[in-house]
Amino acid sequence: PVSSIFIGHGPANVIGSGTHMIVARTVREGTDGNQVATYLRAHARPRERVYIIPSALFSGEYNMTVLYYALDLPPASMYLESDPGLQIQPSVQRTILKELHHCTWIVIWKDARQAKDRNGRKESAGERYIGNAFRPVLVNRTYVLLKRRPSVH
Known about the structure:
Blueprint: E1 2-3, E2 14-17, E3 20-23, H1 27-43, E4 50-54, H2 67-71, H3 84-87, H4 90-100, E5 105-109, H5 125-133, E6 134-139, E7 143-148
Parallel strand pairs: 1-3, 4-5
Antiparallel strand pairs: 2-3, 5-7, 6-7
């Protein structure tokens, strides 16, 4: 099945991993998304978990949740949709960080709109944890794919 969430301009917009496909907003996003899907097909194990986030973990206005379907890996967190009003709460951040201990892959969506923080933005504990526990394995114009560093939990 193909998601009709976004209107595309042809096959170059389709992101997929086998039988799970979505239609990206642009050809670039489709091409870049397919690079991520292809890498994960080659390197991920079926039970490994993925977390898809905007480029600023706790301040993105939304993220690319439809990508979970195309990547065909289980989500690492119950917080699939980025909601900055919710994700700035310390209890939610603690829950996400606990869930990330069982996460192998993180996809950072660089095109996400970022919420405006009136007090200036500092790196969160979650962003520090991700920076220490994960390393980039694929970077393109739309996404950064991170993999958990060996023996970091």
